[in-house]
Amino acid sequence: MRDTKESRLLLVLLVAIAFALITVDIRGGRNSPVDGARQAAAAVFGPVENGLSSAVDPVGNAVSAIRDSGSRHDRLATLEKENAALKAKLGSDDRNRSRLNQLDRMLKIAGEGQYGIKGAQVIAIGAAQGFSWTITIDVGANDGIKRDMTVLNGDGLVGRVTTVGPDTSTVLLANDPDFTVGTRMEGGDELGFASGQGDRPLRVELLNGRADVKKGDRLVTFGSEADRPFVPGVPVGVVSRIDPSNGGLTRIIYVTPYVGYTKLDIVGVVVQAPKKDPRDEVLPAKPKPVPTPTVTVTVTPSPDASATDQQQ
Question: What is the pLDDT of residues 14-44, one digit of tens each?
Fold first, then answer.
């Protein structure tokens, strides 16, 4: 198109018309008189725009993905670290809750029996000098620990101290075959001696061969002279089996210990014995018996049976 006076005039006229249409469209809002023309244009050019978009978007998405891949990878790594830290924290909290529970139960036993205890943590199992059932705890002579002190936890009797170092001690567990402790039956004065049998129940030899004993009866420590190595009243276990009485001078029973000797963590060394024998005060509350459901069957004669009886 040549640059003439007429062409310049036409350009000015078209610009003026364009501004006029824009003004009318803005003022008209949704009722704009050019809205129909806009929709017609959208119908014509819309498919073309969609085609161009579908052709261009994958490339754009790929570029964006490459551009953001570094930051996304860093963010993912951060989230994974945060997740791992959270799991570790939760695991730690679970362990701490378990330890607090063990400590609470142990303090309850100490309070009920009036035992002065020194808390300790199990740091090793087994002994360097053999294969006996022993544990190593993180308290020793510097903490006031001495040989032949009673060791307990929140469940009952754990064992006795056999070796003491400056900061650690070795404890012989009650289930060791070389372990023996005097026992007393709950609610009476039947005495005996309990010996360890490894992972089997404790073997208890009652001094009275005619002792009246039954499954479910419970035993506590009898105590030793000057309370060493055992203080009285510490829960030992529950009778699980009784050998038939053969009229002998003694009677053998088997006792399932309260303490799980394969899962020890928090224990307490009795550094001060009670002023008096707590007897059965430290034993846990007996479980309440579960009532046995009874079924009552009521027989109701049918109408046909009643009519037959009357006819007869």
Answer: 666 665 555 555 455 545 555 555 444 444 4
